[in-house]
Amino acid sequence: MSVPDRPVAEASGASGTSGAPVASVASGRQRSEMPQPVALQATAQANANIALVKYWGKADDELIIPNASSLSLTIDGLGTTTQVTFHADGAVQDGSARVDAESTSRPMPQEQGLCGDGHESSQDSDTLIIDGRQHSGKALHRVSDLLDRIRELSGLHAPATVISRNTVPYAAGLASSASAFAALAAAGSRAAGLNLDPKDLSRLARRGSGSASRSIYSGLAVWHAGHDDVSSYAEPVSTSMEDAAEGAVAEDFGMNLAMVVILISDRKKSLSSRVAMRRSVQTSPLYQAWIESCGRDLHQALAAIGHADVEALGAIAESNSYGMHATMMTAQPPVVYWQPATVEALHAVEELRAEGIGAWSTMDAGPNVKVLTAAKDAVRVCESLRERLPELDIRVHEAGKGVRILDRTVDNSR
User: Fold this and answer.
1) Could you tell me the pLDDT band of residue 332, with boundaries at 50, 70 and 90?
2) Per-residue pLDDT for 240 more than 60?
3) 193-205: per-residue pLDDT in tens?
4) Rounded distance, CA 192 to CA 37, Å?
5) What region, left, alpha or beta, does residue 16 occupy, with left being phi > 0 and alpha being psi -120 to 50 degrees?
6) Contacts of 112 (CB under 8 A, 6+ apart)
7) pTM for the predicted model, two decimal places
8) Residue 196, φ and ψ in degrees, nearest 5
9) Cα dist from 164 to 7, 80, 320, 409, whole Å
């Protein structure tokens, strides 16, 4: 049976549809009174998000608990579509699944060396295909780790095939892991028969990649650092504003923001974000001061959003980005992702502002530059940057939707 494209937040009600998933959500506790059919295959789509107040550095590497809370904008046009299939032959379902805050805070299977009920991890028999090419090694290990988490929560013990297609360059500093693990968490959990609410889905995605916790949501989202698995999750930032023309309150999708992406390089980074992050935390003399500034930046950014002040939000985002890269450049040895074209692009953004055009730069761990602007100004910003940087690929990405289930197949015979 196929289910049409719906946002996860809309598709996760307790009543469900025909062939409803195993778990339901009620008052933060999810359970089923009787066994339900297991959805063995599901497909999900998620967009990348660009952090405005950055996440850089972990307080807990295993649980991926960050040192500071962060703020992001989910954007369209850069994303991942992932299909997860659990192979029914030999699969075992432990009766009705029960998922709650206590169970989801247990150690992950890879920490125990086991998968859920004491079976060995299925990662050796999982299959990962990204953009038509089969992957093994670290990529498969990270995917299987998250699938093991899903197998533990659902009680379904079966190897999986994961097929992923991307419109975002892999490991190039354009938030490919955010969209990839958000899509994997949504598709994998739904295929295993879980029906997680957005908060718990955010927590699950975080276990694959920290920034993936924010891609669960449309537009602006804040990831609360928390202190453990239960308290570290993302949630949407309300941007409801009064429509003066209509005299009514309408949802302003992403505060009518956009990102203009200046693609400097789509090649895989020579140094992964995880390694660069750890080095910055351990060796940069500026790191702790930057972390302290992140708390102030987030507070001020949320205030700017509350006042729909794009200029204030942009200035905070740009300053926070420079601060993060300062911690990298002062690490030992230094981490420098910038290329000559990166510096040229950053100067071009400053020139636009000097001419009265609202544009503010932000960068993640890579050479590419993203430019925050109001959606109404995005085309003008893009065209102006193309004039200054004619050899670079420059595109507009408006605020995007959160993760969505595109379809699922339910085995009603089990």
Assistant:
1) very high
2) no
3) 999 999 999 999 9
4) 10
5) left
6) none
7) 0.81
8) -75, 140
9) 19, 7, 32, 17
Strands (E) located in 280-344: none
Of the candidates 49, 67, 19, the residue with the CA atom closest to the CA atom of residue 298 = 67
Cα–Cα distance measured from residue 347 to residue 355, given in angstroms and rounded to the nearest whole number: 13
Evaluate whether 259 touches 397 at the Cβ level (below 8 Å): yes
> Which pLDDT tens digit goes with each residue over 297-330?
999 999 999 999 999 999 999 999 999 999 999 9
Cis peptide before 4 (omega within 30 of 0): no
413 vs 399, more confident: 399
- Residue 378's region, left for phi above 0, alpha for psi from -120 to 50, else beta, is alpha
Distance, in Å, from the CA atom of 59 to the CA atom of 57, rounded to the nearest integer, reads 7
Distance between CA 413 and CA 39 in Å, rounded? 11
320-333 in b/e burial notation, b at 16+ Cβ within 10 A? bbebbbbbbebbee
The helix or strand, by DSSP H or E, that contains position 75, with its residue range, turns out to be strand 70-86
What is the tens place of the pLDDT at every residue in 100-116?
333 333 333 332 222 33
Q: d(Cα 350, Cα 357) in Å, to the nearest integer?
A: 9
pLDDT of residue 168: 73
Dist. CA 124–CA 159, nearest whole Å: 8
- In the block, tokens 């940087």 appear at 389
If you average pLDDT over residues 117-139, what whole number do you get? 76
Largest interatomic CA distance in the chain: 66
Which pair of structure tokens corresponds to residue 235?
């949630």
Burial of 201 (0-12, 13-18, 19+ CB in 10 A): buried
- H or E stretch including 72? strand 70-86
pLDDT digits (tens, 9 = 90+) for 205-233: 999 999 999 999 999 999 999 999 999 99
Contact (CB, 8 A) for 41 and 409: yes
CA distance 26 to 8: 16
What does 206-271 look like in DSSP terms, one character per residue? HTT-GGGGTTTSSSEEEEE--SSTTT-EEEEPP-EEEETTTTEEEE-GGGGEEEEEEES--SPPSS
Give just the sign of the alpha carbon dihedral 376, 379, 384, 385: positive
Contacts of 397 (CB under 8 A, 6+ apart): 75, 76, 77, 78, 258, 259, 260, 261
